[in-house]
Design goal:
The complex is a heterotrimer of chains A (304), B (334) and C (350).
Chain A: H1 3-13, H2 17-33, H3 36-53, H4 93-129, H5 131-145, H6 149-159, H7 165-192, H8 195-202, H9 207-219, H10 221-244, H11 255-267, H12 272-299
Helix pairs in contact in A: 2-12, 3-4, 3-12, 4-5, 4-7, 4-10, 5-7, 6-7, 7-9, 7-10, 8-9, 10-11, 10-12, 11-12
Chain B: H1 2-34, H2 37-42, H3 49-58, H4 74-85, H5 98-133, H6 138-152, H7 155-176, H8 182-187, H9 202-228, H10 231-238, H11 243-281, H12 286-296, H13 299-327, H14 329-332
Chain C: E1 29-40, E2 43-55, E3 60-64, H1 71-79, E4 87-96, E5 99-100, H2 106-115, E6 117-120, H3 124-127, H4 134-146, H5 150-163, H6 169-172, H7 182-194, E7 200-204, H8 212-229, E8 232-236, H9 240-246, E9 249-254, E10 257-263, H10 264-269, H11 274-281, E11 331-333, E12 337-339, H12 344-349
Parallel strand pairs in C: 3-8, 3-9, 6-7, 7-8
Antiparallel strand pairs in C: 1-2, 1-4, 4-5, 9-10, 10-12, 11-12
Helix pairs in contact in C: 4-5, 5-7, 7-8
Classes of the chains: A mainly alpha (304), B mainly alpha (334), C alpha/beta (350).
The structure holds adenosine-5'-triphosphate, iron/sulfur cluster (SF4) and magnesium ion (MG).
Iron/sulfur cluster (SF4) is lined by residues 274, 310, 312-313, 316, 318-319, 323, 328, 341-343 of chain C.
GO molecular function (chain C): ATP binding
Membrane topology (chain C): Peripheral membrane protein
Subcellular location (chain C): Cell membrane
């Protein structure tokens, strides 16, 4: 019952594609600005990003600094001065968590950037050119899809004796690019059928120009949404793999390691060793997922 | 339908071969780059060369192509496929067959996965339908909020917290009390109890299924809302059908199609998640096998079990695909 | 029509319809001053703004108008299948045999649909449920409204498919919608509307989605069934040729309102409203089929921001000063016609 209307209005304005872009993003901004959830998640994301890149703003002393940790304080319960207590290594829990943020977040950003670039390139190639290109890319995607993320990542990380942000990023990108590629491919196929692409082609524009100017700009929205959510899930995946023992290695200060330390001790009464790291992980993942969710709602024309 | 199944079976062969090849290629590449796991196992205090060589021969790690970085080792792959076909997925560093260890532990993991699936499907679809029918009402907002929060909880976080807060703080007093029924205490146990092979897996099963529950609820909701707007629902209304037929018959079946697809993907997620859950709850399943192998740095076990799990995942995906076709005639008659 | 339902025991089932006092002398379907609003982000849109018409048994009423003028919304409001919200029926009456349907409770009203008033949609592919067989969908009304058994419903489905001229109906009942051609699917839609022998059929652009050659066949089928079964047919269309062939009377809509009503000969001979006149002039030959009504200069008003006065004013050749602030009522024009134009006499004379 809405379909007649939206089809009509879309048909009328898409001839001028610049117009449609501007008004689409204008609408999105309008939708976002009046959503409190958007502002909440955006604030959280900004806080997390500053913690990741400038931890000294939030906790003056790095737990890795000489003399920062004292084994005498190990597992110390929260006190008035140190409301988050001490880790098993006797470091201040709050600064360990703050300085551990970067480990997770920077990895997630690198992985998201890598998978997004790969996904956009491969998805556009498959969707726009179709035919043999599409077949090859889609079959390779299928094969990678046959390997569940955690299982695949686990095998290779277990084989690497040294694991750092680069090896982790590499493995995550290798196993993570498929879903974004699929989404981009679907979105490009939908865009390709729109009138303005035909119009541009009729005007003699080259393929590369059309892809750059029209196809990507009009197909990217679902990828942005998915990438935002994926950022959260990579943080979660890194923590999980670290927890399993195939992610970051000691003595790195990482959330997953802190949970692994706290998990058994929590049962013995040291609840703060478990609850605080968990709270950091959950809040961070939640912030990105919420942001992606709000973006998705704002980008969905059917919600207007 | 018969033709569709036959075609899916034929398509299945290149996919499974491709995936196994990918697994093989990436693991050989890693071995080529970082050195073989037998040496890694012993670290700096290496045993005599003869022992190393004997071990390497047993694990197929003496193939010269493993020294040539970039060589895909196709010959080795063909050998491996032959071994896989005869059920040989390698041996651990003590010489026990991986397949044997797997089969020994698989029933527990299967039970755990079944509990997780049942839980996430029943609760997830119910929540999704309720939210979709009452879009933007209280129940919808509640479901949307809870599911976002659930999705933000990694399995190991949820599991650790559940173990602490439910298994210990609630379950333990129940098990020690004389008024609470035995089954209730067992349902909230901190670990696996062979005397209660299903009940003691309930809490871990819920932990394992929680993430997917959220995903299923959201998927059901979105797809229900979408289908409620569709033309054929309008037709159903024009036919004078009541709300129960419109939702229960005309909308639900269409809305469950994407959910079924998701469940196919989800089986892979559950298999991965079972590593974590079994590690946390100390459940003697396949996941714990991997968990222990990681700690012992026992690479052949990790590769072997992950290979078996991948095959399990691909086969269950195939089953889900066929189920999907049973629900959607457009696929069946393509 | 041979009917397994009427000689079985199923008709004995009591439905809420039995409690309604239908007046067989009242007009079959009468719409009076129907108003439908949509609450949108840009404000209130009056999608239907005072549509009235009368339809008798055996009569075909054509509804004409540009895209977006509110034809489908009118049809769905009569059927009672608008989504509320966003839609709201702000006023008016829809009387079937004297009973105002808008005042009925939904639990009663749904029995009016299909039993008395049925609808045919434009795009049969999306209007049929993709996951059920055609036979199942055709038999559903009989099962749900008349309590027919599965076997009876299936027999009824075969009968209906036969009636709309689908060859090998016995085999095809177990096919799915996507296995039919476009024309065949539209026949299935027609069959589905006829399932419970309604008296009124509302067809919303039943042939627009079809190939030109198939359009004529489907239209002939519909018109033939209408004659044979003495149905009241409301035919919404863009195709002037179709209306000329099939309709007895015509209602022309513009921007949510009915601007002219007349019998089909009069309106083609001498339109009494500038909009109708422009429509007719926009096609080279009246008997030419497949023409779209798109060639009038300018755009219809935005429904959320309707100017005062006559809504056709900005595009009207006959407009004078008062047209911009005096909204024209629906004037009675000799010959039982109606026109919403202050200067209908002048238009009629020209
Ligand atoms: N769900 C909706 N929300 C808001 N406005 C709507 C909605 N559905 C319809 N409208 C409004 O109602 C008006 C009439 O729509 P309708 O579908 O009845 O047009 P129509 O005459 O059937 O056009 P067409 O010939 O294209 O089918 C549209 O212009 C639109 O503005
Ligand atoms: S009332 Fe005036 S503007 Fe409206 S149709 Fe008549 S002449 Fe044209
Ligand atoms: Mg319409």
């Amino acid at each position: 019952m809405t379909e007649t209307m939206s089809a009509k209005s879309a048909g009328a304005s898409e001839i001028a594609d610049e117009g449609v872009n501007r008004s689409l993003w204008g609408d999105v901004r309008y939708e976002l600005a009046r959503k409190p959830l958007f502002w909440v998640s955006l604030m959280l994301v900004l806080v997390i990003l500053t913690m990741a890149f400038f931890p000294q703003l939030w906790a003056s002393e790095s737990p890795n600094a000489r003399g920062a940790c004292d084994l005498a304080n190990a597992r110390g319960k929260p006190t008035w001065d140190h409301p988050f207590g001490y880790t098993t290594a006797g470091c201040d829990m709050w600064s360990s968590l703050v300085w551990g943020t970067g480990k997770s977040v920077i990895l997630a950003i690198l992985v998201t950037a890598g998978t997004t670039i790969l996904g956009v390139l491969l998805g556009t190639a498959a969707g726009y050119y179709g035919g043999g290109t599409d077949t090859i890319i889609s079959r390779i995607t299928d094969i990678f899809f046959g390997l569940p993320f955690i299982l695949g990542a686990l095998v290779f990380l277990a084989l690497f004796p040294e694991r750092n942000v680069y090896t982790l990023t590499l493995v995550f990108v290798v196993f993570g690019w498929t879903s974004l590629t699929r989404v981009m491919r679907g979105s490009v196929i939908a865009t390709k059928q729109k009138d303005f692409i035909d119009a541009a082609r009729a005007l003699g524009a080259s393929d590369l120009f059309i892809i750059r100017k029209h196809v990507i700009a009009n197909s990217i929205a679902p990828v942005i949404v998915l990438a935002t959510i994926a950022l959260g899930t990579y943080i979660s995946a890194e923590a999980t793999l670290t927890f399993l023992g195939v992610g970051y290695q000691r003595p790195a200060a990482s959330w997953g390691l802190l949970v692994a330390d706290g998990q058994t001790l929590a049962l013995a009464g040291f609840w703060h060793l478990l609850v605080y790291p968990c709270a950091f992980i959950v809040t961070t993942v939640l912030a990105f997922i919420l942001l992606g969710d709000v973006l998705r709602d704002a980008l969905d024309p059917r919600n207007r | 339908m018969g033709r569709y199944v036959a075609r899916r079976l034929i398509q299945f062969i290149p996919v499974i071969l491709g995936t196994l090849f990918l697994l093989h290629m990436l693991s050989t590449l890693t071995i080529q780059i970082v050195g073989d796991p037998v040496r890694a196992l012993f670290g700096p205090n290496a045993p005599p060369q003869a022992i190393i060589e004997e071990l390497q021969a047993r694990y197929n790690l003496d193939d010269p192509c493993l020294e040539q970085t970039g060589n895909p080792c196709v010959g080795l792959f063909v050998d491996r496929i032959g071994q896989y076909a005869s059920g040989d997925f390698g041996v651990n560093f003590r010489g026990r067959s991986v397949m044997e260890m797997f089969l020994e532990r698989f029933p527990v993991t299967a039970r755990l996965t079944v509990i997780a699936l049942a839980f996430e499907i029943v609760v997830g679809i119910t929540a999704g339908v309720l939210a979709g029918l009452k879009k933007d009402k209280l129940i919808d907002n509640l479901v949307r909020f809870t599911t976002v929060v659930l999705i933000a909880f990694p399995v190991f976080v949820f599991g650790s917290l559940a173990l602490l807060l439910v298994g210990l703080k609630i379950g333990l007093p129940l098990r020690n009390s004389d008024w609470a029924p035995e089954w209730l205490g067992q349902m909230l146990n901190v670990g696996y109890d062979p005397d209660y092979p299903w009940l003691s897996l309930v809490l871990p099963g819920i932990v394992l299924g929680a993430f997917s529950l959220a995903a299923i609820a959201r998927l059901t909701r979105t797809s229900l809302i979408e289908n409620l707007r569709s033309d054929y629902v309008r037709t159903a209304r024009a036919k004078g059908l009541g709300a129960r037929d419109i939702v229960g018959v005309h909308t639900l079946r269409n809305s469950l199609i994407p959910v079924i697809t998701y469940i196919g993907i989800d089986i892979g997620f559950l298999l991965g998640g079972s590593l974590v859950t079994e590690g946390i709850f100390n459940i003697p399943g396949v996941g714990q096998l991997v968990f222990l192998a990681i700690q012992a740095n026992d690479a052949p076990v990790i590769i072997g079990v992950v290979t078996i799990l991948t095959v399990v995942f691909l086969v269950s995906n195939l089953v889900v695909d066929i189920l999907y076709a049973a629900l959607d005639p457009r696929i069946r008659y393509d | 029509m041979t009917d397994i339902l009427s000689n079985g025991h199923h008709r004995a089932i009591r439905t809420p319809l039995d409690a309604l006092a239908f007046d067989e002398d009242a007009p079959l379907l009468e719409v009076r001053d129907l108003q439908v609003e949509f609450h949108t982000r840009d404000g209130l849109a009056h999608a239907v703004n005072g549509v009235s018409f009368v339809l008798e048994a055996g009569e075909t009423l054509g509804i004409l108008g540009e895209s977006g003028c509110g034809k489908s919304v009118t049809a769905q409001a009569i059927m009672g299948i608008l989504d509320t919200p966003p839609a709201k029926i702000a006023g008016g009456e829809v009387r079937y045999r004297g009973v105002d349907l808008l005042s009925l409770d939904e639990s009663v009203r749904r029995h009016v649909r299909a039993n008395r008033i049925a609808m045919i949609f434009q795009d049969a592919l999306s209007a049929l449920n993709p996951v059920f067989t055609v036979g199942w969908q055709l038999g559903e009304p009989a099962r749900k409204h008349s309590g027919a058994s599965r076997a009876d419903a299936r027999r009824r489905a075969v009968e209906l498919l036969d009636m709309v001229g689908i060859p090998a109906a016995k085999e095809r009942v177990s096919d799915y919608p996507h296995q039919f051609s476009g024309g065949m699917r539209q026949r299935v839609m027609i069959a589905m509307a006829l399932a419970l022998e309604p008296d009124v059929i509302i067809a919303d652009e039943p042939t627009t989605a079809l190939d030109v050659t198939v359009q004529a066949q489907v239209m002939d089928l519909l018109a033939g069934l209408q004659k044979e079964l003495q149905l009241g047919l409301v035919l919404i269309t863009h195709d002037m040729g179709v209306v000329a062939d099939v309709a007895d009377k015509i209602c022309v809509m513009y921007a949510g309102g009915a601007v002219e009503q007349a019998n089909v000969y009069d309106i083609y001979e001498k339109p009494a409203h500038p909009y109708t006149k422009a429509l007719l002039e926009s096609i080279p030959r009246i008997d030419q089929k497949g023409q779209d009504l798109t060639v009038i200069k300018g755009l219809p008003p935005v429904l959320t921001d309707r100017p005062p006065g006559c809504s056709f004013n900005p595009r009207c050749q006959y407009a004078r000063g008062n047209c911009a602030h005096d909204e024209p009522p629906l004037y009675d024009v000799p010959g039982g016609r109606k026109s919403a134009c202050h200067y209908w006499e002048e238009v009629l004379g020209s």
